[in-house]
Design goal:
8 helices, OB fold (Dihydrolipoamide Acetyltransferase, E2P), 16 strands, 2 domains, 13-stranded mixed sheet, Aminopeptidase, alpha/beta, about 350 residues
C-alpha cells in the first residue's frame, strides 16, 4: 500500500478501500529522506530524515465523525504534498482518519459516537461491543505509541482533532480547549489558533471522553478539538476557507520561519467558558428553537432552551450562549452546551 501511496499520493483512497483493516507496513524512505509508515487503516506515521533533531510530536486527527469531510480532505492534501515532496517535514506527525467505516458510508457514526469513547470509556459498561469502541481503544494505543517512540528530552506534544459542526455558526471556525486538570491554559496555543484564522475558543470546565481530552490528560499534550466550518458531502468543501489553518499547520510540520512571525492579540479572541452542559434525561427531550439555529446564538434570562419531558430548561443567568444543540443524542448524553464569556482565566 505504501507503493500505491507513493504513486497516487492519496491516503484517503487507500483508507476507504480498506475501511475494516489495513496491515502495518513500512517505514519507507522517500527521495528527500522523509519516512512514512502505515500503522493501520487510516493511521499514517510521518518522520523527517533526522528524527533526533525534532522537538515536536503532532497528532492530526480527522474523520472521528465520518460525515465531517473538510478536515479529512485537508489532511489528505497535506499527506499528498508530503509524499510528492511539496511539503517538507521537519517534525514527527501522526495522521489519523478516525472512523474509516463511517467515512466509507458517509455517516456520522456506525453504531456509537466515537468521540465519546476515549480515556477508557470504550471498555466500560457494556464493554467492547461495537466497532467504534474497538477503534477508540486502538487509536488510544497508536497515540500512546507515537508519543512513546519520540526521541528523549523535552518534547512539544500537540494534538489537533479536526471536526466540522452539524449546523452553521456565528463563528464558523472555533476550538474547544479541553479541561487542563487544574493546570493553567497556555496563551501560546491561542497564538497558534489566531494565526490559523480561529478567533473563538471554548474553555471546557471538566473531564470528558473526547479524543483531544485523552491526549491532553494522559500525555500533557497541547490539544484542541477544532471545528472547521459545517458538515458537507465529500468533494463539496471549499478548502480555501481554511487556508490560514492549513498554512499554520504546515508551518509546524515544516518548521517554517514564517510560523514564528505572528503578533498575538488576546483582545481579538472570543473566549468562552462552559457554564453548564444540558444532559438528555428522557426520550421526550426537545429543543425549544429552530433546527437551523446557529451555534453561539445568545439567549436572554428567562428564555426556555429545551424541555426534558415537561421540565423546562430555562436561562437563569443574565444570558447564555449555546453550542452543539442535538436532541437526538442517546439518553444520558449531552444535548446542549451553555457558555458565558470567560472570566478570571489562569494563563501561562
Amino acid at each position: 500500500m505504501l507503493k500505491t501511496l507513493r504513486t497516487f499520493h492519496d491516503f484517503l483512497a487507500i483508507t476507504l478501500a480498506n475501511p475494516y483493516y489495513l496491515g502495518a507496513e513500512g517505514p519507507v524512505t522517500l527521495e528527500n529522506g522523509t519516512r512514512i509508515s502505515i500503522w493501520d487503516t487510516g493511521v499514517l506515521l510521518v518522520e523527517p530524515a533526522v528524527t533526533c533533531q525534532t522537538h515536536t510530536d503532532l497528532v492530526l486527527s480527522s474523520g472521528v465523525h465520518g460525515n465531517e469531510t473538510a478536515p479529512i480532505e485537508l489532511c489528505n492534501k497535506m499527506i499528498a504534498d508530503i509524499v510528492n515532496g511539496t511539503l517538507a517535514v521537519a517534525q514527527r506527525v501522526l495522521f489519523i482518519f478516525g472512523n474509516p467505516q463511517a467515512i466509507h458510508h458517509s455517516t456520522r457514526i456506525v453504531e456509537e459516537n466515537l468521540n465519546r469513547l476515549f480515556s477508557g470509556e470504550h471498555s466500560r459498561q457494556p464493554g467492547l461491543v461495537n466497532k467504534e469502541r474497538h477503534r477508540a481503544k486502538a487509536l488510544e494505543g497508536y497515540v500512546r505509541r507515537f508519543y512513546a517512540k519520540a526521541p528523549s528530552g523535552e518534547r512539544n506534544r500537540l494534538h489537533y482533532d479536526l471536526h466540522t459542526a452539524i449546523r452553521g455558526s456565528v463563528h464558523p471556525q472555533f476550538a474547544i480547549y479541553p479541561y487542563p486538570d487544574s493546570k493553567p491554559y497556555y496563551q501560546a496555543q491561542l497564538q497558534f489558533l489566531q494565526q490559523a484564522g480561529i478567533d473563538t475558543v471554548l474553555l471546557h470546565n471538566g473531564p470528558t471522553t473526547t479524543f483531544s481530552y485523552f491526549s491532553a490528560h494522559e500525555f500533557d499534550a497541547h490539544a484542541f478539538t477544532i471545528e472547521l466550518g459545517k458538515v458537507l458531502p465529500m468533494g463539496q468543501n471549499d478548502l480555501r476557507q481554511f487556508a490560514e489553518f492549513d498554512y499554520a499547520t504546515r508551518a509546524i510540520i515544516s518548521e517554517s520561519v514564517a510560523s514564528t512571525h505572528h503578533e498575538f492579540d488576546l483582545s481579538k479572541m472570543n473566549i468562552y467558558q462552559v457554564s453548564r452542559s444540558i444532559v438528555k434525561q428522557h426520550d421526550g427531550f426537545r429543543l425549544n428553537f429552530a433546527k437551523d439555529l446557529c451555534n453561539f446564538s445568545r439567549f436572554e434570562q428567562g428564555a426556555t432552551l429545551a424541555f426534558d419531558n415537561e421540565q423546562a430548561v430555562v436561562v437563569e443567568a443574565q444570558f447564555e450562549v449555546i453550542v452543539f444543540p442535538n436532541a437526538d443524542v442517546p439518553k444520558g448524553q449531552r444535548a446542549l452546551i451553555c457558555l458565558q464569556p470567560a472570566q478570571d482565566v489562569q494563563w501561562l
